[in-house]
């Protein structure tokens, strides 16, 4: 065993990089490559930008579906005022764990170190706009049904979601995080616990979903607990905390 020269973490002999901080063990002129957020345990904004760029390039080149979700806790300012920094960190970690459990194992969840209310980002490969709406609604139900042990007076939380989707008629990858933020802000006028996406093409109605067009945007409110299914042509969502579901595609 040896010790990392940067963080003093014990590493096995022969390793080239430290598993704790990412430093090149054989080159002291390099800096540490941190890809994990210390508070939430999720990938950080720098790493997520790289993931989104790579996935967007692949989606455009091979004409594959790709969606990005930007997630924000509702009433974030009130939560921030009422909780200490330590309590907030614990709540963010618990919320992060809940979000990870609500998506598929092929999806990537990260934390954005943005000023103001904390935001999470999710990268959903092989998922079109209709499938992303269903995935986002499942995420919101998962959060709303969770009893947050670290939340103090906020044991029940809701989140709102903004959706951005790669559209192949455009040239090159889009800045999907900015589009997700824009969708999230456009849906804020409809109240908390909402999913909002730019309405570029007709979204198949699922019967239970309440659609409220806002200009070129579509906002959906929560549906029943058994709605965690994929849209036609999208990859099935992996069921987690809800009853078994089936793929609605043909």
Low-confidence stretches: 200-217, 223-250
- β-strand percent reads 15-25%
CATH class of the largest domain: Alpha Beta
Number of H/I helices: 5
Q: Return the string of H and E elements.
A: EEHEHHEEHEHEEE
Question: What is the 3D form?
Answer: globular
Overall structural domain count: 2
Average pLDDT taken over every residue: 77
Largest sheet: 7 strands, mixed
**Structural class, judged by helices and strands?**
alpha+beta
Q: Write down the CATH topology of the largest domain.
A: Alpha-Beta Plaits
Strand order across the largest sheet = 4-5-3-6-7-9-8
Describe the 3D structure.
The structure is a single chain. This protein has 250 residues and is α+β, with helices and mostly antiparallel strands. It folds into two domains: 1-33; 45-220, Alpha-Beta Plaits (2-Layer Sandwich), CATH 3.30.70.270. Helix content is 28%, strand content 17%. It has helices spanning 45-62, 76-82, 85-101, 129-144, 176-187, and strands at 2-3, 10-11, 66-73, 108-112, 119-125, 159-165, 195-198, 211-214, 217-220. The strands form two sheets. Strands 4-5-3-6-7-9-8 form a seven-stranded mixed β-sheet, with helices on both faces. Strands 1-2 form a two-stranded antiparallel sheet. Mean pLDDT is 77; it is low at 200-217 and 223-250.
């Amino acid at each position: 065993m040896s010790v990392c020269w940067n963080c003093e973490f014990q590493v096995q002999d022969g390793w080239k990089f430290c598993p704790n901080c990412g430093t090149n063990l054989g080159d002291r002129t390099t800096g540490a490559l941190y890809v994990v957020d210390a508070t939430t345990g999720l990938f950080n904004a720098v790493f997520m930008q790289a993931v989104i760029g790579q996935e967007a390039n692949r989606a455009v080149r091979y004409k594959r579906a790709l969606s990005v979700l930007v997630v924000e806790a509702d009433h974030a300012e009130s939560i921030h005022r009422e909780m200490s920094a330590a309590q907030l960190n614990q709540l963010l970690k618990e919320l992060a764990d809940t979000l990870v459990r609500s998506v598929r194992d092929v999806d990537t969840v990260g934390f954005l170190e943005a000023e103001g209310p904390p935001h999470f980002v999710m990268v959903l490969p092989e998922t079109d706009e209709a499938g992303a709406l269903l995935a986002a609604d499942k995420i919101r139900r998962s959060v709303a049904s969770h009893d947050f042990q670290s939340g103090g007076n906020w044991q029940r939380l809701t989140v709102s979601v903004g959706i951005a989707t790669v559209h192949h008629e455009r040239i090159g990858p889009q800045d999907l995080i900015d589009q997700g933020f824009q969708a999230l802000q456009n849906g804020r006028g409809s109240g908390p616990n909402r999913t909002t996406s730019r309405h570029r093409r007709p979204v198949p109605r699922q019967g239970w979903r309440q659609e409220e067009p806002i200009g070129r945007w579509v906002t959906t409110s929560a549906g029943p607990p058994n709605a965690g299914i994929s849209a036609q042509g999208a990859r099935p969502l992996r069921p987690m905390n809800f009853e078994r579901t089936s793929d609605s595609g043909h």
